[in-house]
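A quick aside before the break. I want you to see a complete sequence-to-structure record at least once, exactly as it would be stored in a machine-readable document. Don't worry about memorizing anything.
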Amino acid sequence: MEFVEESPSPPPTLGTVETVVTHFFSGTIAGFTGAIVGYPLDTIKSRMQTQMHLPSAATIGRRVTPLQAFVHSIRQEGFLSLYRGASTQVARQAIGCSILFGLLSQFKGLFYTPSDGPGSPEAHPHAVLAASAACTGIVEASIYCPFEITMVRMQGLYRGLGPTCCREMLGNTVYFLSYERFKHLLHTHTDMTEMQVYGVAGAAAGPVYWCTSFPLDTIKSVVQADAMDPRRRKYHGIRDCATQLYREGGAGRFFRGLSPCLVRTMPVSAVKFMAFEKSVRVKMVEESSPIVLGKVQTVITHFFSGTVAGVTGAVAGYPLDTIKSRMQTQMHLPSTTAGSRITPLQALVHSIRQEGFLSLYRGASTQVARQAIGCSILFGLMAQFKWLFYTPSTGIGSAEAHPQIVLAASAACTGVVEASIYCPFEITMIRMQAVKGLYRGFTPTCCREMVGNTVYFLTYDRVKDQLQAKTQLTPMHVYGTSGAVAGFAYWCVSFPLDTIKSVVQADVLDRRHQKYLGTMDCASKLYREGGVGRFFRGLSPCLLRAMPVNAVQFMSFEKTVEMLMPLWPHSRRTSQDAR
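That is the input. The structure line, written in tokens, reads:
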């Protein structure tokens, strides 16, 4: 039955799948538009911080105003120079706003307190909003802290991009071609069920991926672990690295450590593809009319299904990751002699006997999150590139003319994008001293996000209510004005905490040489150094940027939610029932 869409249609209940993906996707759009608007101001801020020289400056050391920096930059390099290097910031903002708005909507659903019963007005809207914003802040801090301290400390985040890009392009191409080929053969020559076919084909594709791409992965890891200083580097490029590795151990040197990957990849790939294929079919429930690739629903469906696949794959494969790590650290077994190798089975049995089965999942949350994001990118981008390269044989709706070529091109392009995203994180994990180091400054980061988010959303909600009640502004004007005021309030309240966080994270990791011994010690020393004003140094560029950026972000978010909600079958059913 097809449901007739009417406007306005009641939104789905908070917490439903439709609302989850709608708010996360709308947050992504909001972050993207906000970054586009705000990046020129970020550029100006950076140039001011580096004390750019202006010919008109009367004396050396004279401060440059934002307007002077803006005019000088456009005159000297053109307007587009203000967007130089914008791609990273756009991606970061898109992900950040997706997390912010998506989590906020889910916490609001969790804390929902109706006054009388289901469907009744919210009994304590501001308390719920404050609690939701604070909880969102805690989650954000846990995610952002490692990345912020990494950006403070790291250099050369794209060293090793070449082999990473080659690995992902070649690996993805082989991976998906193998999966489709195995799936076709199993469908044709066996009586397996759909889920069995997906599992077996996925299990077969995993080893093919690693056997093909592992030499490139070895080169990538070695290059990234090399010294950053060119004078101290052992390897002077990809070819030189490959040559030296071959001299060191022949062809086998490139496959050192392959066996644990092969053991792990079969169940993980099987579960991933089973979860992905099942999730796609659960979401595409439009009876006999599948959604055309490229539509909003399908974009969301494939990214969301990829997330499900990543989570299930991580849960299935994490024990084997643990065993691999323990083997790499040469765990000691009483029954083995010094220097003898430990087999995976020995490591598994020993770990379970000594610490129990659950010890194999210790620290799994980070890996689950990483896999969820990684598979969301992998499967989501694959679907979109397949749509982009679609070559029907006769016309719209006809069969694909060159399916293998389209699949290979899509996988290769996905690999390029993946490499650009993964390379900084992989080199970071190789170079950072420990996971604990990634969370230095977590306390001020957490406080900043909790306090800032609470003020941010309470201000937005309050200003929006006032403007809707007492003015004749259009909805978009209301969203924009409220967002601008909320952004201003956020930075005024949270900037001192942001200053403390940045200073703590920039301090050395070695405790013997640390200048600041904690958050309170840092705050005390900063106050002695410059009084209250020391905590607000650099605030003006943030305020200048915050108002237009947050205005655009909230306008984009609210408008995207309005556009997406009617597309879901849930909304159509509600509309039909209301008739």
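Two observations worth writing down. The chain has two domains: 17-154+439-578, 161-431. Residues 161-431 form a domain with the Mitochondrial carrier fold fold (CATH 1.50.40). We'll return to this after the break.
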